[in-house]
Design brief:
- With 181 residues, the chain is of the alpha+beta class.
- The protein is 45% helix and 21% strand.
- β4 and β5 form a beta hairpin.
- The model has no long low-confidence stretch (mean pLDDT 95).
Amino acid sequence: MTEIHLRDALKHAASALKAHGPDFALAGSYALWVYGGPEPVHDVDFVVAEEDTEVAAVTLEKAGFRIDRTPEDWLFKACVQEQFVIDVLHRLNGTPVTADLIASADELDVLAIRMRVLPPTHVLTEKLNSLNEHHCDFAALLPAVRAVREQVDWVELRADTSENDFAVAFLVLTDRLGITM
């Protein structure tokens, strides 16, 4: 699937959610892209408040997406053309997404659609806290972190990831590479 298809899916999903609810925010690698990171090629992530999960699924289904319920209890997938392109998350690293988190996101123009976008510090906190012995791909994170480094609150990021040894190791690497500020 190309970026063009992902962009179209992002726009279509965002338009439907804006028109029919619930409130949402762009998250994950596409949020970092909005702030200058590399464009993702696999999927688009949105977050909705946990209590709004079913409303989001109905909205996207009515907009033509096929809804796939995953075994994981923290997201569902909205699919177009047999591809999983939109992940709708209602929990981040085990913590329920709240309406307050979504309301606090920056409101920006993304592909000519005004929407909330989680800030880089929050996105990177979630990405780093998800690192573990089964998923620890520093190489995939480095380009995005380098691209958004001037927009990251490094003190907050370090504090919010200090309990995850993999995150701490990643931040040592970014320090040694001169990426952190």
